[in-house]
Design goal:
The structure holds 3 protein chains of 3 kinds.
Chain A lengths: L1 E8 L4 H14 L3 E7 L8 E9 L14 E4 L19 E5 L10 H4 L7 E4 L1 H8 L6 H12 L4 H11 L2 H24 L7
Parallel strand pairs in A: 1-4, 4-5, 5-6
Antiparallel strand pairs in A: 1-3, 2-3
Chain B lengths: L48 H16 L4 E5 L3 H6 L11 E3 L5 H14 L6 E7 H6 L2 H10 L4 E6 L40 H7 L4 E6 L3 H12 L5 E6 L3 H5 L5 H11 L5 E4 L2 E5 L8 H5 L15 H18 L8
Parallel strand pairs in B: 1-2, 1-3, 3-4, 4-6, 5-6
Antiparallel strand pairs in B: 5-7, 7-8
Chain C lengths: L1 E5 H11 L4 E4 L6 H13 L6 E4 L3 H13 L4 E5 L1 H6 L1 H10 L4 E6 L13 H5 L6 E4 L3 H18 L3 E6 L7 E5 L3 H7 L16 E2 L8 H30 L7 E4 L6 E5 L3 H14 L4 E6 L1 E3 L3 H8 L4 E6 L10 H9 L5 E6 L9 H12 L6 E3 L4 H13 L6 H8 L9
Parallel strand pairs in C: 2-3, 2-4, 4-5, 5-7, 6-7, 11-12, 11-14, 14-15, 15-16
Antiparallel strand pairs in C: 1-8, 6-13, 10-12
Helix pairs in contact in C: 1-2, 1-7, 3-5, 10-13, 11-12, 14-15
Classes of the chains: A alpha/beta, B alpha/beta, C alpha/beta.
Chain lengths: 196, 333, 417
């Protein structure tokens, strides 16, 4: 079983991200479960959503306490909420930012992890570019596909077309694909975690 | 046999003279074709205004709907005396659910008829003042707001009679009830703002609102038939004296109802979409004492000395209604 | 057809396939997505003929369903928590009148203090109202139980409550198999009522019944539920043949055959319990799970049989009989009375407190080594409790309990002093 935890703020599409990711896994004939950690609905409040992916039926209902991967949609949470809690050794971390891990002040923490599993992507900028809205979730899913390899970018694209329609869907797909390419490039260059 | 003059005062109802009328203007009650929706054998008190009102209203509704009618009934006197286990005196399809949900149950029945393509079957909801103005208020307002195709009829005897005459929001000022006893400095019910359900119904802008009393049979039947010609939320408020709760003689029910109108305390009118469309004028105006004195629930006003200031306040309420609704012919003011 | 959808959506699609004629609902978290989806289907015309009514309260919702069902329409509504309580009078009325209304209860805690998260307090508060109560373990089962519920209810003339854990199931995306309209039509015929409001055949429904007959009427209600116990397994079997899945029935057993310890539970927590049980089994512990699907009527004999071989029973429940202990465990004891087994109650997950494998494994191990008390509250913060009690001992005007605790936990920041 592969467990992903997504952190963000209300209004950034955190829950939709988890749901879309689960659809992507489903489209690849796997079992997937996505659910939010539920709080009162309020824009701007910290929100967490979970996704589990497995080859067999998922029965577990507890929150994701030991994520294999973290997607952080809003870096302002990094020093406010314990986003890294329970992350497994050599887990994946994908942060929505145009800055580096060092510039964000988390490189100390990140040092204990496999460098190839740590990536940043300017998802909000990509969303603004392709969709015209600062909602970074679709781009981050593209980045996640790249850094983890756990879902294909094509499945992500199809899942986005399930969740959205029309121009928004296509914009999201474009953002996801560009984020995918960006992260792939980042991983190749190996320059993500240290410099900024 | 000595000659005995009879005063046929009931000119408005033509009750006595029905045989002399052409069949098409006779009351439903006077015809053989009336359905007796509420059949005899029920357990109402002698002189019960509600039993009268319900029979008048339901038979008129059955006539208007060509006998395609379903009734929902609130908990209360009518429900209790009409269905004493193991009997029922209803000859129409009838359901009693709980006290406060009658309007919603009627909404459900109307929805069922609509979805089954049987819109010719009409729905009436009925309840007393308690089940309408108090506990049933929320559901009633909801039904009004949705403009559900339901005619809601309130039989107002101005208190929770079935449970032993307790005060409701429809109880008039100064009336004695078991929870507004005629004791202390301000005996009887308080002088509040009242809770004017017909006006509240009008505020919902529903297609038809009317008030009536059991004293005017033709008027009541006509209003029910008017209502049945319309689709959407409709409300009729009928004043039904209660000999037991009001403390009057059981043969005076109709007379007391007439006095309520003639004093101006109970305005009789019709309204549509929030505007009054017709008013039934007072024929022979009476001072409020004529209405209050025969009822023991107001007896404490007429002690030694009588509470003239309080009676004057009651008169002021009547005067206000007369002004507000234009209840008098211009010449008689 | 396989779909990856939110639980609420799965339920809405299942209900729509059952051809409801009148849907009425009042919004309350976490049921909102179910009725929103149904409302959209009606508005688009994809669910027709159907009347969708936006009512002004839950009391109105159940009342509209009563009127519709009494007038021979297939009626559906949904609620949770406070809403279920608000309609309680009408809930009893529906079962008393024998109207086969189907209602989803998206299980949620009841205040005070107000809490929107999952537990079983709401359904348990109505456990004796005369409705059939079914609890879904997964969204697939939730979907399936609604289809079964209409069939069950209409055959018996009894209303059915389908319970699914609020948020945990209603708001979770998972894979479900949604049947076709043809499959559902073959399983669920149109509603033919035992009684209905019809001008062609007038009847009076809802008369008063006095001391001379009330006992008999109530006894017959009990008889009807006991009859349901006999029929439910057969209907579940029929469902299995028609749809190819084991959904519903009275209970589900998992690895109970040689189990020394059997854990009894309802609803979605069964999934977490099964994962815990598998892990413990791998280390040689003989432990099994009994999932109760039909809570009312209480499957006394089936539970007795399922628990007969166990030495120990732990009832894990998301409900609390304040002043007594467990609700489910009290019911379980009616099935184990006379037996030598220890039945221990573990109250867990109240108000949405997560139930984790770690905590469960620790608790089950304690049960096996005999150190688990008769009644425990899983993951209770004893420090918080002690401090709250100390506050009350120290001063009379100790303040509102909930707010004091939140402040203690640092959740409420501001203080005017």
């Amino acid at each position: 079983m592969f467990q992903i935890r997504i952190h963000g703020r209300g209004g950034q599409g955190v829950v939709t991200a988890a749901e879309t990711l689960s659809i992507a896994a489903f489209l690849e004939n796997r079992y997937a479960q996505a659910f939010p950690s539920f709080g009162s609905e309020r824009t701007g409040a910290p929100v967490v959503a979970f996704c589990r992916i497995d080859e067999r039926e998922i029965r577990l209902r507890e929150p994701v306490l030991n994520p294999d991967a973290l997607i952080i949609q809003d870096p302002t949470l990094l020093h406010q909420v314990d986003v890294f809690s329970g992350l497994v050794p050599d887990g994946y971390i994908l942060i929505n930012t145009s800055r580096s891990f060092e510039a964000l002040g988390v490189d100390e923490f990140a040092r204990g992890f496999c460098a190839a599993h740590l990536c940043t992507v300017p998802a909000t900028e990509l969303a603004l570019k392709h969709v015209g809205r600062p909602v970074p979730n679709a781009a981050l899913l593209g980045g996640f596909a790249a850094v983890s390899g756990r879902v294909s970018i094509d499945a992500v694209a199809n899942a986005l077309r399930h969740k959205f329609s029309g121009a928004i869907a296509e914009g999201n797909v474009a953002a996801a694909r560009e984020a995918y390419a960006f992260v792939r490039e980042e991983m190749k260059e190996g320059s993500h975690a240290k410099t900024g | 046999m000595a000659y005995q003059p009879l005063k046929f005062y009931q000119t408005g109802t033509f009750t006595v003279g029905n045989r002399l009328l052409p069949p098409d203007v006779r009351s439903v009650q006077s015809t053989q074709r009336r359905t007796n929706s509420l059949n005899s054998g029920h357990r109402a008190c002698q002189g019960c205004g509600e039993a009268l009102g319900a029979r008048f209203a339901m038979d008129a509704a059955m006539e208007a709907s060509e006998r395609q009618l379903i009734a929902a009934n609130a908990t209360g006197c009518l429900e209790v005396f009409s269905t004493p286990y193991p009997e029922t005196s209803w000859q129409i399809p009838w359901i009693h659910s709980v006290f406060g949900n009658t309007a919603a149950v009627a909404t459900g029945i109307a929805a069922a008829m609509k979805v089954k393509g049987r819109s010719e079957v009409r729905v009436v909801a009925q309840g007393g003042d308690g089940g309408t103005t108090d506990i049933g208020f929320g559901c009633l307002s909801g039904m009004f707001e949705r403009n559900d195709d339901v005619l809601f009829i309130c039989y107002d005897n101005e208190a929770y009679m079935n449970t032993g005459v307790q005060r409701s929001s429809a109880t008039p000022a100064t009336a004695r009830t078991a929870t507004t006893m005629a004791v202390g400095e301000a005996p009887g019910n308080v002088f509040g703002q009242g809770k004017n359900l017909p006006v509240i119904a009008m505020a919902h802008e529903i297609p038809y609102v009317a008030t009536a009393t059991v004293a005017e049979l033709h008027d009541l039947e006509a209003k029910v038939k008017n209502a049945m010609r319309i689709r959407g939320a409709r409300y009729i408020h009928i004043l039904v004296p209660c000999p037991l709760g009001w403390g009057h003689a059981s043969q005076d029910t109709i007379r007391i109802a007439r006095l309520a109108k003639e004093t101006g305390l109970f305005p009789v009118f019709e309204a549509a979409h929030g505007e009054v469309t017709s008013v039934s004028r007072i024929r022979r105006r009476q001072p409020v004492e004529a209405y209050l004195r025969p009822q023991k629930r107001f007896a404490h006003l007429f002690g030694e000395p009588p509470k003239l200031e309080v009676i004057a306040r009651m008169q002021a309420l009547a005067d206000r209604n007369i002004r507000r609704y234009g209840l008098l012919e211009p010449e008689s003011i | 057809m396989l779909k990856q959808v939110e639980g609420s959506r799965a339920v809405a699609e299942a209900v729509a396939l059952c051809r409801p004629e009148v849907i009425c609902a009042y919004p309350i978290s976490p049921q909102t997505h179910i009725v929103e989806a149904l409302g959209e289907m009606v508005k688009r015309g994809t669910l027709a003929p159907c009347e969708f009514i936006n009512v002004e309260s839950e009391f109105a919702a159940m009342s509209v369903a009563i009127g519709a069902s009494a007038a021979a329409a297939r009626a559906y509504t949904a609620t949770a928590s406070q809403g279920l309580l608000f309609m309680a009078e009408a809930v009893f009325n529906a079962s008393g009148l024998g109207l086969p209304i189907v209602m989803t209860v998206a299980n949620r805690a009841i205040g005070a203090p107000i809490n929107i998260w999952n537990d079983h307090t709401d359904a348990m508060s109505q456990r004796d109202c005369g409705w059939i109560q079914l609890f879904a373990e997964t969204n697939q089962e939730a979907l399936d139980l609604h289809i079964q519920a209409f069939r069950l209810g209409e055959e018996l003339s009894l209303p059915v409550m389908v319970c699914m854990d609020g948020f945990i199931l209603t708001h979770a995306y998972e894979r479900v198999d949604v049947p076709t309209q043809a499959q559902v039509d073959a399983y669920l015929p149109p509603y033919t009522p035992r009684q209905s409001l019809d001008p062609a055949e007038p009847v009076s429904i809802g008369a008063m019944v006095g001391p001379e007959a009330f006992m008999e009427v109530r006894y017959l209600a009990h008889v009807k539920q006991m009859r349901a116990l006999e029929l439910i397994p057969g209907w579940a079997e029929e469902f299995r043949r028609a749809f190819g899945r084991d959904s519903g029935g009275l209970l589900h057993r998992y690895r109970c055959e040689d189990a020394e310890l059997v854990v009894v539970a309802l609803g979605s927590v069964l999934g977490t319990v099964k994962d815990t049980v598998d892990a413990m089994r791998e280390r040689g512990t003989r432990i099994g799970v009994l999932g109760i699907t039909c809570f009312r009527p209480w499957p006394q004999d089936a539970v007795r049989a399922a628990l007969a071989q166990a030495k120990q029973i732990v009832v894990l429940e998301k409900s609390l009989a304040v002043g007594l202990g467990g609700i489910v465990s009290t019911n379980v004891r009616t099935s184990t009375s006379g037996n030598a087994q220890a039945v221990r109650t573990v109250i867990a997950g109240l108000g949405g407190r997560p139930i984790t494998r770690t905590s469960l494994e620790r608790t089950f191990a304690q049960a096996l080594d005999g150190t688990l008390e008769a009644l425990t509250f899983l993951d209770l913060d004893h420090g918080v409790v002690e401090r709250a009690l100390a506050r009350e001992r120290e001063q009379r005007r100790s303040g509102p309990i909930a707010e004091n605790i939140l402040r203690d936990l640092g959740v409420v920041g501001a203080r005017i002093s």
